[in-house]
């Protein structure tokens, strides 16, 4: 069922009294069973819950569970989340404590200490991580709780004590610590985003961005080393990007103070090496590597800053090559290869990475610690130097746009079609589907160009100022096409239009399919509107329909959604809570307006497709 139709359905039952609401909801579920999706069914039952609880019905939850056991988990979750965030002081629903005999895999709505569990977001051999809500601050946090009830579990509290002394934007802040069911836990800032490994696998970052992020992680490590802290498990899955694209180093479960010469038995993953991840571990951490390195066993097994420097080299290697340094080795060969520092140098040389970056990898990943680059800070400096040189070279090709000409929805602006001579040459377009394969409306294609390379929009958001945009649309035979942009300040601008022809075809903005248009202007939300019809409306009529409300919030940094003739498809989601006074999420506000835009144009017989995404300024 489309969102507009479902909203009309909700309007029909909004004023139904509590005594009749259950019967009416069941009737709607039965009559629309084939058209309601899973989420819409849950929303209808949640409306029943609100209506009955407002009338003092204390048995509504049990009744909903009995009637719809298959939807129980989602219904209870919806109730708990809204209870925590919207009716915090309402005591009509008593907190449900977690029984100490339960499995450590807690369900949404339960409690660990005073924290309400929303969902599990991670798990390792020693601990689980949950997304939780703070009991008084009404904010979401990450809670890491040990699986163990023995004295060994105290390592989690050690991790908390270690991190609470660190104040750096590259590390998630520790908020609280405690004991629950004889298990220690720590509570820290919740980092929303994806890992470096995921970003590399998606091919969604340019070489410059990857190097910049590794440099930032290196600077953070340099500060940790200054305080005597060694991470001991640097790897792509332990680097997260938050909503502002700030890389954050996570999982200090194996971290030690630099003054510690040995290592804990708790952190040993194999008899032959100290704690860490094999593919990114320094050779000297292996028992046998002391002989091959010419060091004593005590020295070779000591964990210090040089170990992290080697892992940083492995991190850069992964960013450049796309796999870990020992990926060419068999499982039987890898342990000996790691112990002897025999990582795959040929793959690095064959990757096409700039020679300066290859050299940086080699300097950090030398077998002997004394022969490596001196520190994490020096490693960051070497990467910063390459970035500066590269930017100076690229600066000669950058066109500075001082006058905002067209706003790209709440965020940015594109150059007018008449000024396409100011656009940058890119590479030829990636092959688009044959026009015969896209006869059905709804295939608007947006590509982002950076460093002479195209990215699919969903793999590139948020789009940075200065990056180039290409818009490609399939225009059906005998139809007129228009491409519009909407800005947050209420401005609407038609970028270009296409006259009907007797055959279907791909059309492009800019018109030269080998060029892109730089995105400039303030940050926020972008919306590209494609209108296809047998005959065009006047420009004034379209502007009136596209006009947006004064309040136009920024979408989440990873958000991309598409509306095709009113049907919403979220292609990538970045869910986040706004300020406590907000009643609608930013995404909901934007979607609500764009649905209204679609409805107005559809009433004039037009097909409408809208793609909205986020944009950040440099």
From TrEMBL:
Annotated EC: 2.7.-.-
SUPFAM superfamilies to which the protein is assigned, alphabetical: Protein kinase-like (PK-like) (SSF56112)
Transmembrane segments: 398-416
CDD domains tied to this protein: STKc_PknB_like (cd14014)
Domain called Protein kinase: residue spans: 115-387
Protein keywords: ATP-binding, Kinase, Membrane, Nucleotide-binding, Serine/threonine-protein kinase, Transferase, Transmembrane, Transmembrane helix
Pfam families, per the entry: Pkinase
The keyword ATP-binding belongs to this UniProt entry's keyword annotation: yes
Gene Ontology MF terms: ATP binding; protein serine/threonine kinase activity
Family annotation (SMART domains): S_TKc
Signal peptide positions (record): none
Entries under InterPro entries matching the protein: Kinase-like_dom_sf (IPR011009), Prot_kinase_dom (IPR000719), Ser/Thr_kinase_AS (IPR008271)
Name of the molecule in the record: Serine/threonine protein kinase
Taxonomic lineage: Bacteria, Pseudomonadati, Planctomycetota, Planctomycetia, Pirellulales
């Amino acid at each position: 069922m489309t969102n507009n139709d479902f909203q009309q359905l909700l309007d029909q039952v909004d004023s139904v009294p509590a005594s009749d609401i259950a019967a009416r909801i069941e009737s709607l579920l039965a009559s629309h069973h084939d058209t309601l999706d899973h989420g819409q069914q849950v929303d209808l039952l949640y409306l029943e819950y609100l209506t009955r609880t407002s009338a003092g019905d204390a048995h509504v939850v049990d009744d909903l569970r009995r009637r719809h056991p298959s939807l129980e988990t989602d219904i209870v979750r919806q109730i708990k989340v809204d209870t925590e965030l919207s009716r915090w002081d309402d005591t009509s629903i008593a907190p449900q404590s977690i029984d100490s005999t339960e499995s450590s895999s807690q369900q949404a709505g339960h409690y660990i200490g005073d924290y309400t569990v929303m969902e599990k977001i991670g798990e390792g051999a020693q601990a689980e991580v949950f997304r939780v809500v703070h009991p008084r601050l009404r904010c979401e946090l990450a809670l890491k709780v040990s699986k163990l009830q023995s004295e060994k579990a105290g390592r989690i509290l050690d991790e908390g004590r270690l991190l609470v002394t660190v104040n750096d934007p590259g590390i998630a802040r520790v908020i609280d610590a405690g004991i629950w069911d004889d298990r220690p836990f720590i509570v820290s800032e919740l980092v929303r985003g994806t890992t470096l490994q995921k970003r590399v696998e998606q091919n969604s970052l340019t070489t410059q961005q990857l190097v910049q992020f590794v440099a930032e992680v290196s600077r953070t490590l340099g500060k940790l080393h200054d305080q005597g802290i060694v991470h001991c498990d640097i790897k792509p899955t332990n680097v997260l990007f938050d909503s502002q694209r700030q890389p954050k180093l996570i999982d200090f479960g194996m971290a030690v103070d630099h003054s510690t010469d040995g290592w804990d038995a708790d952190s040993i993953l194999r008899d032959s090496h100290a704690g860490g991840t094999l593919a990114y571990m320094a050779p000297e951490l292996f028992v046998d590597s002391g002989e091959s390195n010419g060091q004593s066993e005590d020295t070779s097994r000591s964990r210090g800053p040089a170990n992290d420097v080697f892992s940083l080299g492995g991190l850069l290697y992964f960013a450049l090559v796309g796999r870990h340094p020992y990926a060419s080795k068999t499982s039987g060969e890898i342990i000996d290869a790691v112990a002897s520092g025999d990582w795959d140098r040929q793959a690095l040389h064959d990757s096409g990475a700039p020679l300066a970056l290859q050299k940086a990898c080699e300097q950090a990943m030398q077998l002997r610690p004394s022969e490596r680059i001196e520190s994490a800070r020096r490693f960051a400096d070497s990467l910063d130097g390459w970035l500066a040189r590269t930017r100076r070279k690229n600066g000669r090709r950058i066109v500075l746009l001082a006058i905002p000409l067209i706003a790209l929805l709440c965020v940015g602006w594109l150059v007018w079609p008449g000024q396409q001579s100011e656009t940058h040459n890119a590479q030829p377009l990636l092959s688009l589907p044959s026009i015969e394969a896209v006869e059905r409306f709804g295939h608007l294609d947006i590509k982002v160009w950076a460093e002479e390379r195209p990215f699919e929009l969903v793999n590139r958001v948020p789009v940075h100022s200065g990056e180039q945009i290409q818009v490609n649309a399939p225009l059906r035979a005998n139809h007129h096409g228009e491409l519009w942009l909407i800005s947050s300040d209420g401005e609407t601008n038609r970028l270009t239009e296409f006259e009907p022809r007797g055959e279907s075809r791909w059309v492009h903005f800019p018109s030269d399919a080998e060029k892109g248009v730089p995105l400039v202007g303030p940050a926020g939300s972008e919306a590209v509107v494609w209108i296809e019809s047998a005959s065009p409306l006047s420009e004034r009529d379209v502007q009136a329909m596209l006009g947006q409300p004064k309040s136009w919030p920024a979408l989440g940094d990873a958000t991309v959604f598409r509306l095709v003739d009113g049907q919403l498809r979220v292609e990538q989601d970045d869910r986040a809570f706004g300020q406590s006074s907000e009643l609608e999420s930013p995404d909901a506000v934007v979607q609500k307006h764009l649905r209204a835009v679609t409805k107005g144009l559809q009433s004039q017989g037009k097909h409408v497709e809208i793609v909205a995404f986020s944009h950040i300024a440099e």
